[in-house]
Amino acid sequence: MKFRRPVAEEFPISAHYGDWGPFWSKHIDASGVWVNCQSDGMGQHKGIDFKTPEGTLVYAMEDGLIIASGWENPSNPKQGFGLRVRQQFLLPSGVYATIVYGHLQATHVQTGHQIVKGDRIGFSGKTGHVTGPHLHVEVVDGRGQYHPLELDTTERPPDTIVA
Asked: What's the helix, strand, coil split of the chain in %, to 5?
């Protein structure tokens, strides 16, 4: 299984999987809870950011079920991923994983929708904890985080991320 990009090829990656910095000192764990990464205020980026202008179409990277579509924290839209979509999909091994599409301007899908690879998810934006418009994509399962563009087998363990 090789994921396709959620946006067109012309949009470069502005933050790579595994990058370190103070901006990523907190992340969402597999249960959806924000946790501190390290006591020194540094953290590791758990996904990929695509440098997209607001309003760029975002497409599903895999077939699956939309398990959340809306604000991560409706009472504080500046927190976390802001307007986001969480898509659950089944790996060939029978393990479920989740793709998160974050910082959206608008969504095309609702919780409970079944989607197929290439369906419209929404439009990129600059909602949540951001410094500018982009699309954040990450993949997580009960074992850890994965590089969103390199997950191609269920037998490979997740990349080790020091947290």
From this structure: 0, 40, 60
Tokens 């999987």 belong to residue:
17
**Do 128 and 100 meet the contact criterion of CB atoms below 8 Å apart?**
no
Say whether pLDDT at 103 is over 90. Answer: yes
* Whole-angstrom distance, CA of residue 130 vs CA of residue 1: 31
User: Does domain 47-146 match CATH 2.70.70.10?
Assistant: yes
Q: Are 83 and 125 in contact (CB under 8 A)?
A: yes
111-120 pLDDT, tens digit each? 999 999 999 9
137-158 b/e (C-beta count within 10 Å ≥ 16 → b):
bbbbbeebbbbbbebeeeeeeb
How many other CB atoms are found less than 10 A from the CB of residue 63? 14
pTM: 0.79
SS3 105: strand
